[in-house]
Write a structure and sequence with these properties.
single chain; mainly alpha; 2 domains; two-stranded antiparallel ribbon; 2 strands; 61% helix; elongated
Length: 281
């Protein structure tokens, strides 16, 4: 996959030119996450053993039951829980500067996150079980065929341009490199300078919501001149803006970003939260 990224158009018509996460980066993130899970299980084992020793409990099955419960929770909810957060990334993905997004450019939904991680049973855990199994005769053939079948899932990301897992393909998701961090307050300060020349009415600011604000922030971070011009053209048309000052596309967008963000933050103080342009608020 080229490091130059690929075309990725949001429902608002913005091409963010995202870079797809490389297989090596995703593998590194997975290794980090598995090490964290193992460390958590080791810590859980130590805590359970210490608790039983302090309480003088002699039931031998209790540690095993608690350990299996902890393993079940980590196995099923570690990846899902972290990817449901706003960062849409596990600790391993954060270290490798990756995140999960929806392939259609829309919002990453809980259903998509659950779907992509449900397939992890076939893609990761089942192959591990086969590889750790031993058998003779018919059992050995079954294990060998199981390993071969599992290998198809393991190697699947190598044979498509976006390095999609089977879970990504089913859930409509993909893993991309997180954009280079530029703090939102920095954008607000740039916008505050632009607001000295620009003034937006409440009607013009009410055209968009939180989702569009986030897309606009991504556009400003990318700082791609062609994308800035296209987005500025769309917003000007949407809000009926007449350019009487002759400001640049970036100055216009930073000014609008600061004004929109300020309006949305004021609304949230009064308990009103407009998710996107389709939300009446």
């Amino acid at each position: 996959m080229s490091d130059a990224g690929r075309e990725f158009v949001t429902p608002e018509g913005v091409d963010l030119r995202l870079k797809v996460g490389a297989v090596s980066e995703r593998a590194g993130a997975l290794v980090i996450d598995l090490l964290i899970i193992m460390a958590a299980l080791i810590l859980l084992t130590i805590l359970v053993g210490a608790a039983l020793w302090v309480s003088n409990v002699t039931a031998r099955s209790a540690p095993a039951v608690i350990w299996l419960l902890g393993f079940f929770l980590l196995r099923n909810f570690y990846f899902t829980g972290f990817e449901l957060t706003p960062a849409a990334a596990t600790p391993g993905k954060r270290v490798m500067k990756l995140r999960v997004i929806a392939r259609n450019g829309g919002r990453l939904t809980a259903d998509a996150v659950f779907g992509r991680n449900a397939m992890r049973e076939l893609e990761l855990y089942l192959p591990m079980i086969f590889m750790l199994s031993r058998g003779q005769g018919v059992d050995a053939w079954v294990i060998s065929l199981g390993c071969l079948w599992s290998l198809v899932f393991l190697l699947f990301p190598l044979f498509n341009r976006d390095h999609l897992r089977a879970g990504d393909l089913i859930a409509g998701t993909m893993v991309v490199r997180a954009p280079k961090p530029i703090l939102a307050p920095d954008l607000s300060r740039d916008g505050a300078v632009a607001l000295n020349e620009l003034r937006f009415t409440d009607e013009q600011l009410s055209a968009y919501g939180i989702k569009e604000l986030q897309v606009l922030e991504s556009v400003l971070r990318s700082n791609d001149r062609k994308t800035l011009a296209e987005v500025a053209r769309r917003i000007r048309g949407k809000i009926g803006w007449i350019d009487e000052v002759g400001v640049s596309d970036r100055a216009f967008l930073t000014g609008y970003y600061a004004a929109l963000r300020g309006r949305l933050e004021r609304q949230m103080l009064f308990g009103r939260r407009r998710a996107d342009k389709f939300d009446a608020g």
